[in-house]
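Sample pair:
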Amino acid sequence: MMTEMTDTTYKERFLRTIAFEKTDRPIRMETLGFWNETLSRWHAEGLPPEITDEVSAYLYFGFDLQIPLQIGVHLHPGFDPPFDEEILDENDQNENMLVKRDVSGSVVMVPKDGASTIPKVLKPPVKTIEDWNKIKERLDPSTPGRLALLEPLLSIEGASDWPLCVYIPGLFGTLRHLLGLERLCISYRKDPELILKISRHWVYLWKRVIARICERRRPELVSLWEDMCYLNGPMIGPTTFKRFMLPFYEELISFCRKEMAIPAAGVDTDGNLTILIPLFIKAGINMIYPFEVQAGMDILEVRRQYPYEFVIWGGIDKRLLEKTKEEIEKEIRRIVPSMLERGGYIPAIDHSAHPDIPYENWLFFLEVVRHIGENT
């Protein structure tokens, strides 16, 4: 697939979207990603066989280009170096699973065939302050390998016209990597000093890393991976958020947006985040995604309540793409024109493209969304 010629650069389009200004057309980034199994399925339905990963898929489907600097994110809390993966047990009672230590230092159970799934954490790397003191050397902001990819990315031909988007682990995401979800939730009550020690280092780490990046080029976006909500709501409530997250968020986001003059600070979390939205706004967040429909997130209602506070990326039910073309088009036309008219919107499904989506439906979805975008 080919993109059209335009005089507007990808960076200019991104900045205008962040500012709720009119653009030549909406940003083309209609999914957060693609499952490997999805691309494998689509090869049998017409996708060229050389399209084997997310980068080649983004290019093939004509997405707006960016410079994506990902540091840890959902894989680890930003370790440099990360842990070496190590298989610990291939003879588990379930013959389809194996136990390994992954790059985050956690002992996890995963499918032997490498199928896309959320690993089951058996033993996280941190239980005590002593564990934390041993592991935090991997979170030194000055290590040379931490930004090893930055220069090659910036050197790509044409990259000066692309937004530089820095994706890092958020505070809840970092704590979950280190402690595991169950221990983290217990530690908010039982071991708050450990939580606060890690949180103070989180701010220290990313302020200095972002400052290093800005010495080379100022990003257009710093986005925090949190994934801190489930179908019925967040994993922690507003009271816990205010005590253990808000002060650190405010310090880091203020540093990014005010001191470093970075236009956008984003949060990536699945699930229902309704009760946390005011706190994210208070912290200085001005972009939120992906607004998962099956968790009750309705971006038309969200935009009604928050008309200009943050950019919305996503909000179209990914499950919709399993249905008929008539149903797909009807829902797109219910959501997209209104959202684009209000501004500050990037049309997309509410997570990655999953393997139950027929390739024909994916192409139809792109066609309809982009036609509407070009004519709204």
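Residues 84-124 form one domain.
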